[in-house]
Design goal:
Layout: E1 10-12, E2 19-21, H1 24-34, E3 39-61, E4 66-85, E5 91-99, H2 106-121, H3 150-157, E6 160-161, H4 180-189, H5 198-208, H6 222-241
Parallel strand pairs: 3-6
Antiparallel strand pairs: 1-2, 3-4, 4-5
Helix pairs in contact: 1-2, 4-6
């Protein structure tokens, strides 16, 4: 079986224009198809639940209808290392850190990022990493690799995909794909709109995606839905900070 990365590519916006990005779960599929004797080992370098991290992030301001820079603070920091071998003599290492400022599941995302970087260093998706391997750019949000579905787990089982996690860390739940409906409910739960103000949700989604018209028939991809999710979470954060 031949893997075609172009069939699973995402387009990411950047200052230099759109860039191709291959999510980590598909790099794993590619790797497993070609290296069934390969190994993937991860190691927790540091997990500090009480470490307070502050960062300047982009947050959607509903009043000005544009993204603005704000300083967000949260407790939680993780750094992981991944070592990938292809079973043919090649070996690569990747490390990644994440914090609760960016993601609630920052521990899983740090591990996923480390795996993605190691796979890219080994040649699986190197040319499709967007700005992932560049320092000083906004972090990408891959879903944890343990949440990629039965097909991926079946492929992983053919090799020796091992994850060395401390016993105290809970296993990640299966993460469902984002949809407009789920994002609307997320905003509703956070008090950004009600059942009768769906137009407000579509307006925000459209603005976040650069003016692309969004309605009930729209089918944005997962990368675009993640951008809308980030805007909803950041807007709720601004609202809480302002005492709403």
């Amino acid at each position: 079986m031949t893997f075609d990365p172009n069939a699973h590519m995402l387009k990411l916006k950047s200052k230099e224009g759109a860039k191709d990005y291959l999510p980590v779960q598909w790099r794993l599929v590619w790797f497993r198809l070609e290296c069934q004797g390969g190994t993937i080992d991860t190691e927790e370098l540091q997990v500090d639940l009480d470490r307070e991290v502050s960062m300047e992030v982009s947050a959607w301001n509903n009043e000005t209808r544009r993204s603005e820079k704000v300083v967000k603070m949260a407790k939680g920091y993780a750094r992981y290392k991944a070592v990938v071998t292809d079973g043919k003599g090649a070996r690569a290492t990747g490390t990644k850190s994440e914090s609760a400022v960016n993601f609630a599941d920052y521990i899983e995302k740090a591990e996923t990022g480390a795996i993605g970087r190691a796979l890219a260093a080994l040649g699986y998706g190197t040319q499709f990493t967007g700005d992932e391997l560049d320092e000083g750019v906004e972090r990408l949000a891959d879903a944890p690799v343990k949440s990629t579905g039965q097909a991926l787990h079946a492929l992983a089982a053919k090799g020796s995909y091992e994850q060395h996690e401390p016993a105290s860390q809970p296993q990640a739940n299966e993460q469902e794909l984002l949809t407009l409906g789920k994002l609307f409910l997320l905003g509703k739960e956070r008090g950004l709109w009600s059942d009768t103000s769906v137009a407000k949700f579509y307006s925000l989604a459209s603005a976040v995606l650069g003016g692309i018209p969004i309605n009930s028939k729209s089918k944005p991809d997962q990368s675009q839905l993640q951008q809308v999710q980030a805007a909803i979470e950041q807007e709720a954060y601004i609202g809480a900070g302002a005492g709403k």
